[in-house]
Write the structure tokens for this entry.
Amino acid sequence: MAVTQLVGAKIHRREDPRLITGHGHYIDDFTRQGAAYAAFVRSPFAHARIKRIDITDASKAPGVVGVFTARDFKGQLAGTHPAAPAFVAEKKYIPERFPIAEKEVCYQGEIVAAVLADSKAQAADAANLIQVEYDELPAVMDLEKALDAKSPKAHEGAADNISWDLTYTGPEVTEAAFKEADVVVKERILQNRLAPVPMEPRGVLAEYETYDKKLTIWMSSQNPHFIRLFVSGSMGLKESQVRVISPDVGGGFGSKISPYPEDYLVPALSRLSERPVKWIETRTESMQNATHGRGQFYDVEVAAKKDGTLLGMRMTQYLDVGAYCGTFSAFQACACLMAGGAYKWKGISARTIGILTNRVPTDPYRGAGRPEATHLVERMVDLVAGQLKLDPVAIRRKNFIQPKEFPYTQNFGLVVDSGDYEKSLDRALELAGYDELRKKQADLRKQGRYFGIGLSTWIELCGFGPSAATAPATGGIALVESAQVRVTPTGSVIVYTGTHAHGQGHETTFSQIVADQLGVPYESVELRHGDTAEGTSFGYGTYGSRSLAVGGVAVSKAVGKVIDKGKKLAAHMLEAAEEDIVFERGSFHVKGSPDKSKAFGEVAFASYGMNLPEGMEQGLEAVAYFDPPNLVWPFGAHVAVVEIDAETGHVQLEKYVAVDDCGNIINPMIVDGQIHGGVAQAIAQALYEEVVYDEETGQLKTGTLLDYSIPGIGEIPAMSLDHTVTPSPTNDLGVKGIGEAGTIAASAAVINAVCDALSPLGIKHVDMPASPDRLWNMMKGARK
Amino acid sequence: MFAVQAEGKSLTTIEGMAKGEELHPIQQAFWDEHGLQCGYCTPGFIMAAAYLLAQNPNPTEDEIRKGLEGNLCRCTGYVNIIKAVKSAAQTMSGAAGKKATVAAGGN
Ligand code: FES
């Protein structure tokens, strides 16, 4: 391929040839000679005391290598599950969590025993022979009741069920705003608990080499370096003794960030048994054990003037932590800090309460806190508009932060780097044909039909993140990103990044950046990631829409260092002063005389030779870390159009328009793909999905994909997409994240459309999922 | 389907779609239209699409949605999968004159 402008071009993904021919390598494609298979026995109860575990029959079963309970792991694993401060610096209570339960189980699915056998089937059969006697304890399920001092506790002997209770800003900051208000609108907004459901469940293959004392872990992870950090620490190994390899990952959506019990137990089983050990999660195990997202409700009040000027907001987040504090569960509290959305407020009071229950822990799920914030503020703005009989477009325009006001310091001191909210809104309205839609709505309403139009003018913060903010939030490690660029003697380029894609196409996009910057053929650049034995000493993983805005920029910085060294060498080769060397389109030349030049490849080759400037070492490679000065702030405007069947309550999505702004775009095809998938996951939350536990017993009722309905190809509509481009001033590439944008934006647009459709019935607010039964009941109630 | 049910039948899997480096038009279309992200669901979608197009070489969007409703994808929102199948159908009906058999799989 000729070297032209690659950045911004629709380059087909280089990942795809292997994936479309069945040659991808996911975790279950790996095995080791002599591997044993692990199966886990899990608690059938949400909350119980373990009385006795009888392993006699299981130990004698065919093919069984060993049966293990908590006691066996005591000498193998130390410490408790890591819980980062995230957005709640100090927590009241973080229950101790050992990867396998000894005395008490606190959610259905918690591991109580492990079986190792020669085959997967033998391990599963033997696991069925383990007899566990339990004393069932009351399950804590309801968030409000859990706060009552007299409530049973999610953990026996705990003082209460409160993991954290933090007031970011008290009611005093909103007093003036509420005093001035003409209207105050109140609502309770639910955030249904969701299961991330990557198509590939998790899996771990571990091999401990007894004599070398080296551990290799193959696993499906978004975050291999952090896993190495946590598992080595727990197993008493040095990080240098542990290698984590995360191959092709079949989706993550946040559920493959944090360490899980099996990530510790499988390596420990390998060390105990002196055999490689493999475990692949079943779908039901995934539904029961992979961290869930959302699971919250909010009490919100908004004060506004008659003309639609927003004044103040008071909100409390009630967050279901689950049975244990997830590694990044308190990240979800960022919903409070983002509750103001794209608008200006005199004051926002915000409080977050993390409540322990007997459900599986919650942790970041695509968007994590930001979908909740968008949903909350976009719903409230519509409720205010409804009360004041204003058009939802007008009230948004009136309150937007204006382009000239950026960088804008919002109510919680976060600095919004850039934006042009009206521009993306205008484009979305134009694409949707907003005025005609309103006319159509008026006509259909006359016929008694329920037709609704919903907006979401969303913003987010992503690209985690600046060391000053993130090091305290992780307990010390700044979520910056590292990169290494190595140029071989013949001029091919190997790039290592600490991020790790699971569908985002980094092998393609990162190579586009490097090839453009170096002016070398795209094909001569290779991106490598997902193996802690390669590249820089630490990488930070892929989540929070950070890979490009932090990792991509680190790569670009490392390339910059390579070019700097190349300039010095080229100056020497061309007998010119270094300041006079210009690097352009893959060639170093002397300023003003382009014919006096050396190609990048020539310089690379020379760098491994003998004729170097005084003091220069051989080689052409560089490491860079990028510590971003701020987060990045994507935004956009979405429009959803729905019609609701009067008889059945079924929501038909007629149209979906998304105009998003993620700054400069590296590959528009991949950006659109991210929006499609993100929007689909938010439509799923708005209309279809909900993790349901029995409220009395804590039994998971949605443990299969028959009960938990992720949308199929019939449920997701066609989408019209467009972009505005407001480059981020935060990094040299001018980029922002886009991985979570669709999910952050879309639930509000869909539910606003549903509420708009039902407004003739006097229905103001609908909770998610807006399933046919919920809507049918509401419509029936309203018609009475 | 159990393996024994396939006794005596011919069966095509994703590994049998490309002829060496020459991709099957459906594979090519998934690549061109960005019909995959993590790729985990992709072999299933490609094979289901091959069956669909063997039955119905020119499906409408609705027929594509119906024909592929047994497969799930969590990454793409299906938008580009539908595009890919449409585009493969076009390529294959255009190429049908030249090549006698294009679609394999699913019998
Ligand atoms: S591409 Fe990931 S599940 Fe379909």
Notes: DSSP finds 21 helices and 28 strands in chain A. Chain A has three domains: 16-20+481-626, 31-137+199-251+256-289, 296-464+630-783. The mean pLDDT of chain A is 96. The domain at 31-137+199-251+256-289 of chain A is CATH 3.90.1170.50 (Aldehyde Oxidoreductase; domain 3).
